Model the fold of this input.
Amino acid sequence: MLTKRKTPAGKWFVSLGLWIFAAGFAFSDVIGMEGTPRLLELASVPLIIIGLLMVILSNFFNKKGSDITS
Done:
């Protein structure tokens, strides 16, 4: 899997970042869900940005080269 070389903290950042990004994308105007409260539509852009930043931040939590093989 892609997270084999990540530390546990890096794995958490990836999973949470993807879920936050997906929630922000689901509530955005792109999909056009009807009946979405205005507050969630306004919060969608910050959720997308936070999710992307968490995924990018997870790249800095890598195991050392010798730890990957074990």
User: Anything to note?
Assistant: Helices lie at 8-26, 38-57, 65-68. The two ends are 15 Å apart (CA to CA). The mean pLDDT is 84.
